[in-house]
Amino acid sequence: MDSQTQGLARWRTCLPPLFGIVVVLALWWAAGWLMAGNPATANFSGFAPGPTLHRLWQLIASGELSHSINPSLGRVGKGLAVAILLGVPLGIGIGRNNTFRAATHIPFQFLRMISPLAWMPLAVLGFPTWESAIVFLIAAAAIWPITFATAHGVHRIDPQWFKVARNLGARPLQMLRTVVFPAVTQDILTGIRLAVGVAWIVLVPAEYLGVTSGLGYAINDARDTLEYDRLAAMVLVIGVIGFTLDGICLTLIRRCGWSHEQ
Length: 262
Fold this sequence. Notes:
By secondary structure, this protein is mostly helical.
């Protein structure tokens, strides 16, 4: 394949995403133009691309944006760490033990269907700080994708692999290290990818609690002060960071994933 053909193939690959981005920007601009031209919605004209991007640059230059992003990423990281530490062992137990799976099926499915934000009043009462309450809410949202993805992966492992490992004298920890974890790496990472998306969505309303930092707090503050360009800029940042985090997880799945066929 010559360079011209390769360039044409790359252009055809890039064209659909670029077209989608252009359409979204055009619709955004049209919505802002309509709001600015209507006296009833003129106060919300800050949502338009021009004011939003201008305010975004100001937030970056002043350092306010980094002061909002860092606490939010820290809370999501802590919540995900808790969810992984609890969800992976639970998933392995569900996938390996039929009795444990039967005993936990109804309680876990029941708890999974409860919105994490419904636990907000209990989190406020049960934890000494707002920070720990937010981390709990994020962990409550993220634990289920990790748990069930891990359980699904463990359940698919060929039982003969465990038999061979036992015949070779593998102990339980060696079994986990040499059979279970290599076999379910892709499933765990897929669960973490789903958990990141859920946690990032829960983060913003969770930060409406008593904290005075984070992206959710910044959005709530911008709403109260009627700074709609700042609000739109923060929404844009949340989307960009969420998209980036998802891309990182997808890259890890592709690089670290392991399939039964290998």
